[in-house]
Structures are given as structure tokens and as C-alpha cells.
Amino acid sequence: MAEFTMPSLGADMQAGTLVAWLKKPGETVKKGDIIAEVETDKGVIEIESFMTGVLERTLVEPLTKVPVGTVLAIIREEGKPATVSQPVVPAAGTGRLKVSPAAKQLAAELSVDLSAVQGTGPDGAISRADVEAAAAQAPLAPSPAPRAGEAGDRLLRMRQTIAAAMARSKREIPHYYVGTTIDMERALTWLAEENLKRPVKERLLYGVLLLKAVALALREVPELNAVWKGNEVVRSEARHVGVAISLRQGGLIAPALHDTDKQSLGDLMRNFRDLVNRARAGALRSSELSDPTITVTSLGEQGVESVYAVIYPPQVAIVGFGKLVERPWIVDKQVVPRSVLTATLSADHRVSDGHRGGLFLAAVDRLLQEPEGL
């Protein structure tokens, strides 16, 4: 038997609200299957199973807010005998319509009356699929106005959550900062030639070159690819680069691109676009929030030339990229115009030092001078 608990989706998370079970007791679940939806200040997150087995029983009802670490369900390995079921934790407030925030948001967008929708989820919970089916059968109607203050309240809670995490980071982590300017001319030239070979929908953005270079550079300076677990720093063998994504309604989230160093540039581009779209639609998975081993942030689109970011705990480093700018550059003892960008590293001085941080940025620079090898 294994306990399926309310996961920690970041060091700033204290509690979450179970909004829907997507599997019923007695159903088989595989590792990686989505079995529940949880609402946090960051939005609605799809929670994955960490093992293969049978969902023995659920212990918490939808619409219940519980602390991180609370046992939500019991998963039994296949072939093991079942145990006596136990009562579930009651939801706060009875008689409420069981609908996930994601389904509620979609219903508002499609002008679907939730009171007329038949839920097909556990205990009649309404899912996004139920809303889509109802919308397909009903004529379009004017969209209702959003409830006054709802979006503002969510944004305020997110900003408070971010503030708490950043204050903790600056208070507890002895940051050091290093930076360098990278000549991007060779990378941009290669990228333009490469994109001519690709269909329009499969063309690459230069940002994926940066992500891949960071992931590969971590192989050379592995102490930056780590997280704190209690009082011990643990290096990760996998390189899951978190990407800072600004949300349309405001706020920021940094989900992981899993195994960034092992992906081809084409796969990385597709997965990056998918991650951004799902982050802004509130459809991220729990592993994408709990797995980042380092984060990359860029404010180049905002016209910022350099960014010295604050480390997001429990990680030990964050990389910042500014905008591409044209500068005079010396090449073969000649001054020529070059497209360059500033790369910075903010790192935890308890784990590494400026010498190692400098080697990391030098590796990023070197890798971007050979873009065909990324």
C-alpha cells in the first residue's frame, strides 16, 4: 500500500484544495496517470500518480482544502489484497456543485450553464470534457461578465505567494552573481539557415538554443543542478529546466521542461510551446511544478538587457537572459557589429562559488558558438 498525499508544488505552497478525482476507487492507475486536480494559488494543477496499481480508496472529498502532506488516497500495488475502506474527509460545505475550477472557467468561456450539465466524474463531478460536450449540444449565448473581484483576488493571492517565496530566498540563501556577454551572431546565422529547412510551424526560436545550452552546461558544473531537501543539498541526475512564464492575468509560474538536455531542438520547441499554452490555460501537471532543478528567466521581450534573478527555493541557481542588442565587437582584430546578449547566473554560495559559476557561463557561451551541436 502507498499513501497518495497532497503534493508540494513549490516551496511556497502550504495547502491545496482537492477539486476533482479523475479516477474512481477500484480503477487501475499507471505511473504518470492524472488521477486528481488540485487548486493552488498558481491555478488548477493536474496531479499524477507516482506508481502503478489500483486506487484502493479516496480519503478526501472534492472541494476540501488540506495541508501539504495530507493523505488523499491509498494506492494498492496490483496483485496485493484489498483492505477495509475508510470514510473520506468531508468537503467543506454540502450541497455545492462539484466542478473543477478548470471546468468552471471553460463553462464561462463557452456560456454553459453548469446546473444543467451532467457530471461524469467521481461522485458526479463535472469535468472539462462534460462542459465541452454540453457546449456542443447547446446554442451559443452571450458570455456572462466575470464575477467582480474574482480575477483580482486570485492575482493578489499569487503575488502574496511569490512575495513570501522571494523573501524567504533572500533571507535564507547567500546569493552570489556573475554575468557575461555572449556573441550570438553564429547561433543566429545557423538558426536562420536551419529554419529555412523547416515547415513554418516547426521553426525554432533562439530561446530554445539558450535552454538547451543551459541544460548541457549543467553536465559540466553539476553542483548547480540540485535542490535542498531538509538540511542537505541533493544533486539531480536529470536536468529539468524550469521556464519562467508570465501569465496573462498577471503573476508568474516556472514549470519544468523534463530532460531538457536529452531533447532535440525540434522536440524542445514543441514542448516549450505546449508548456507555455498549458501554463496560461491552467492545465499544468504536478511533476512540472515539483521537478525543476534550475530555472531560466528572460526579460528580453520587455527590453531588459540583463536580469539578476532571485533563486527559487529549493533550487540552488537561476539563469537570466536579456534582450539581443547590436554592439561593436572585436573579431580578428577588427571592430564589427554583432548581435549579443547578457547572460547572468544567481547561485547559492553554500553550494558553489564564483569560480564554478564562471565556468558554467563559459560553457553556455561555448555551446552557443557551436549551435549545430545542440
Report on this model:
This protein has 374 residues and is of the alpha+beta class. The protein folds into three domains: 2-76, OB fold (Dihydrolipoamide Acetyltransferase, E2P) (Beta Barrel); 101-137, Dihydrolipoamide Transferase (Irregular), CATH 4.10.320; 174-373, Chloramphenicol acetyltransferase-like domain (Chloramphenicol Acetyltransferase, 2-Layer Sandwich), CATH 3.30.559.10. The chain contains eight helices and 20 strands. Residues 87-95 and 139-146 have low confidence and may be disordered. It is globular and about 75 Å long.
Mean pLDDT across all residues, rounded?
Answer: 85
Judging by the overall fold, what is the CATH architecture of the largest domain? 2-Layer Sandwich
Biggest beta-sheet profile: 7 strands, mixed
Q: What is the number of helical segments per DSSP (H or I, 4+ residues)?
A: 8
Instruction: State the CATH class of the largest domain.
Output: Alpha Beta
Could you give me the name of the CATH homologous superfamily of the largest domain? Chloramphenicol acetyltransferase-like domain
The run of helices and strands is: EEEEEEEEHHHEHHEEEEEEHEHEEEEH
Per DSSP E runs of 2 or more residues, the count of β-strands stands at 20
Radius of gyration: 23 Å
